[in-house]
Amino acid sequence: MEFIFLIFLAVFIFLIYLLNCTLNYFSFGIKKLPLPPGTLGWPYIGETFQLYSQNPNLFFAAKVKKFGSIFKTHILGCKCVMIASPAAAKLVLVTKAHLFKPTFPASKMRMLGKQAIFFHQGDYHTKLRKLVLRAFMPESIRNMVPDINSVALDTLCSWEGRLINTYQELKTYTFNVALLSILGKDEVSNREDLKKCYYVLEKGYNSMPINLPGTLFYKAMKARKELAQILAKIISSRRETNEIHNDLLGSFMGDKEGLSDEQIADNIIGVIFAARDTTATVLTWILKFLGENPCVLEAVTNEQEEIIKSKEECGEEMVLSWSDTKKMPMTKRVIQETLRVASILSFTFREAVEDVEFEGYLIPKGWKVMPLFRNIHHSPENFADPEKFDPSRFEVSPKPNTFMPFGSGTHACPGNELAKLEMLVFVHHLTTKYRWSMMGPQNGIQYGPFPLPQNGLPIKLFPKT
Ligand code: HEM
Asked: In the chain, what are the domain boundaries?
């Protein structure tokens, strides 16, 4: 009996040993792979100083030249793999997106709200995305054109004859459009309170995360609480009236499975954050590029005047409509080329959720992975003479995965149609009714955090006579 037991024990131990060897073989198979080429710099600080002491694009470009399109580095206490090849970016963002989760500093998550769409993967993310896309798909935003027209016209009228900081003024335009898409035309009084709180939040967003009375961070966190309270008030008054709303809040509140007030607030604050500065920055670059390229400006102006002329000839109502915005191919190419040249989101962040084998290299679990949109958009392999502003290059579609101003895959920008629409409407009124002169030095770029023309592009705007 004892003998049989010993045989069983030996077989059992042998099987465990075999299983262990098999598991080790597979995991070592990955672990044995080399890390991507590159340097990690000094202990702890890594290469943070090299990145931030110069234009970040020079840092990325020098690394790509030395190590190729996948390389490792160490920034702000994190080990990173940076990716500048279109195929590899697609793998991270689309094909193997489940292996790379979005990642943000904890202080930014606290400020925007932990339940906001950007920070999630899986079922909760899919549910939010469906609700956000429902509010921003073409069929939903086409009805917004008359209101966007009014906001654009009011904005331009308020600039007449003044020396303005284009970026700061455009932030008001894009804020107003974002609020229209989120709350519709209602909530006029709450809208001003929302704006006031958001401005405080914005000021603290890039401050040191020290939550003590008097600090910008503390004030921002307080404003964030107030924002959530205002939104809760709006939600409760909508619940009382039971009306159907086709805006983003309506989409969130209409969800059968139900989002909590807190989830709704986090996502509304998140969408304002995603929508406002991005679109204002791109529009600022459009004004700059049009100002510097008179032939392009003339072609855009002709296209826009043609729309007015044909409306006059057909006796149509003289208000820009959704279908008019579909007759602007030249203006669309200007927007595409601006998105490419300015590449305002130079890169994005993901984090490997497990050890990943990637093009013959190991990306260890926990390392950050950064697809470098700007390098892809500025590579001569993808775009000939890449530093030149030339909208005509978009007469032909770019090669697959080489043009990703709105990202790609599961987290690609759900607001891209609205962003394009508000830019088209603005450029229509700008070029048909106004001329402008750029004031002061023209060559500098500031980072706030997006690359922006120096001093926000000061201009003077005059009505066309
Ligand atoms: C020209 C303006 C804009 C640009 C260049 C832009 C760019 C982007 C990019 C690159 C991403 C993906 C980031 C990543 O993968 O990590 C993104 C995500 C996002 N954008 Fe935009 N965006 C713009 C305007 C807007 C607008 C107007 C809205 C809303 C109305 C919006 C809402 C969002 C949201 C909610 C996400 C997160 C999506 C998710 O995580 O599933 N964006 N945007």
From this structure: 27-105+344-377
Query: CA 94 → CA 104, 131, 281, 373, 374, distances in Å?
Result: 19, 20, 26, 14, 18
Domain 27-105+344-377 has CATH 3.40.190.10: no
Tell me how far apart the alpha carbons of residues 28 and 457 are, in angstroms, rounded to a whole number: 55
Confidence at residue 188, expressed as pLDDT on a 0 to 100 scale: 75
From residue 372, alpha-carbon distances to 90, 210, 283 in Å are 11, 30, 22
Q: Phi and psi at residue 154, in whole multiples of 5°?
A: -60, -45
416: which residues sit within 8 A by CB, 6+ positions away? 406
Residues facing 78 on adjacent strands: 75
| DSSP states along 215-255 | SHHHHHHHHHHHHHHHHHHHHHHHHHH-----SHHHHHHH-
Backbone φ, ψ for residue 100 (5° rounding): -130, 105
To test the ligand 1 pocket, which listed residue (276, 283, 413, 427) has its Cβ within 8 A of the most ligand atoms?
A: 413
User: Two tokens at 390?
Assistant: 């030339």
Residues 444-455 pLDDT 10s: 898 877 899 999
Could you give the dihedral angle defined by the CA atoms of residues 409, 132, 203 and 148, in that order, rounded to the nearest 10 degrees?
A: 110
Residues 180, 184, 190: CA angle, nearest 5 degrees: 85
Ligand 1 site, CB within 6 A: 102, 117-118, 129, 132, 136, 178, 181, 271, 274-275, 278-279, 282, 344-345, 348, 405-407, 411-415, 418-419
The residues, ordered by sequence, that sit 6+ positions from 105 with a Cβ below 8 Å of its Cβ are 209
Euclidean distance between CA atoms 293 and 282, whole angstroms: 16
Protein residue with least CA distance to atom 1, ligand 1: 279
pLDDT along the chain (465 residues), means of 10: 61 58 51 90 84 79 93 91 95 96 88 93 95 96 96 98 96 97 85 92 88 93 95 92 90 86 96 96 98 98 97 88 97 98 94 93 95 95 96 97 97 98 98 95 83 95 93
With 0.85 as the threshold, say if the pTM is over it.
yes
pLDDT in tens, 255-288: 776 899 999 999 999 999 999 999 999 999 999 9
